[in-house]
Amino acid sequence: MNNQSQAYSIKDLENLSGVKAHTIRIWEKRYHLLEPNRTNTNIRTYNMKSLKKLLSVSFLVNCGYKISRVSKLTEEEVEQYLKGIVSKKTTVDRSLNSLKLAMLNFNTSLFLDTYEELRKDLGFLDIFYDVFIPFLNEVGILWQSNTINGTHEHFVTNIIEQKMWVEIDRLQQKTTNAEKTFVLFLPAGEVSDLSLLFLNTIILSKGYKTIFLGQNVSLDYLKILAELQSDLVFVSYFTLMPYSEDVNKYINTFKKEICIPNKHEFWVMGRQLNNVVVPMSALIKVIHSFKDFEKIVK
C-alpha cells in the first residue's frame, strides 16, 4: 500500500483527529491548512500527509496555540513546537496521535519508538491505563465506523501483546509473595486474551505467582488443577463467552465443582457481566474495572 496516496474522506479525518468536519472546512478555506484532492463528483479526499498535519495542528490548538498562528508554521517549526511541550498529559496525547499514524501505516518502528519514549517517563501499568486503554477504545470505535478495518486492529493488539509478554517475563523473575497463586484462563470459546494478559501483569506486579492458561480452557482441565494445588484464585475475563444468559449458570457450576470442594476463589471480569446480576460470596468476586482489580490484589 502506498500510504501517501491512501485516500481518506473528511469524515475519516474527523473520526481520526477529533476535529469536526465543519472546522476542517473552515481551516481549509480561511487558513489553507490542507489541500484536499477532489473526485469527479467534487468530494474531498485526503492523503496520509494531510492526516499527519491535521493531527499535529489540532494537538497544538488543544494546547492553547491559535490556529491563525499554527497554520503559518512550516513542518519543521511544527515539530519544534511539539517537542517543546513536555507535560504528562500532552506526552500522552502526542503518543496517541503517533500510535494512530503507526496503525494506519502498519509502521512497527513508529509504534515501538513511541512506546520507548513513553517508557522513559512512565511505568508499564501507567502506559496501559493512560495510553493503551484509551487507544484501544478508539481503535474499536474507528473499526465500528469503518474508518479502519480488522487488519489495523490485529496489527496494534499483537504489538501491545508482545510488549506485555516482555513485561510479564521481567516480573516473573521477581515473585516474592507465596501466600496464594492466581490461575488465569479464558472459558471455552473465548479467544481474546489481551485483557487477561493485563490482569496477569497487575498480579505479577504485586509479587504473586501466576499460572497463565490463556484461551479456550474447559472446566474439566481446571478441575484437575484445582485438586492438585491449594490456595488458588481463579481469574477469568468474559468478553464474548459465555453468553449473557449463560453467565450465572457457568459461575454456579464453577463454584460447585471447583471452588467449594477445594476452597478456591473465583474472580471474574468482562463486558458479558454488564447486564447480569451475579450473586457475590466469599468465593466469588465480580470486579468491574482494572483499577478495582488492582486494589483488590493486595
Features:
single chain; 298 residues; alpha/beta; Multidrug-efflux Transporter Regulator, Chain: A, Domain 2; Methyltransferase, Methionine Synthase (B12-binding Domains), Chain A, domain 1; Rossmann fold; 3 domains; 5-stranded parallel β-sheet; two-stranded antiparallel ribbon; elongated
The CATH architecture designation of the largest domain is: 3-Layer(aba) Sandwich
Q: What is the number of strand segments?
A: 7
| Structural class determined from secondary elements | alpha/beta
Spatial strand sequence of the major β-sheet:
4-3-5-6-7
Counted by DSSP, the helix tally is: 13
Task: Classify the fold: give the CATH topology of the largest domain.
Answer: Rossmann fold
The average pLDDT value, as a whole number, equals 87
Main beta-sheet strand count, sense and barrel state: 5 strands, parallel
Tally of distinct domains: 3
Strand content: 5-15%
The H-and-E topology, N to C, reads as HHEEHHHHHHHEHEHEHEEH
- What name goes with the CATH superfamily of the largest domain? Cobalamin-binding domain
Cα-atom Rg, whole angstroms? Answer: 23 Å
CATH class of the largest domain: Alpha Beta
Cα separation of the termini: 48 Å
Low-confidence stretches: none
Gross morphology is elongated
Percent helix among the residues?
Answer: 55-70%
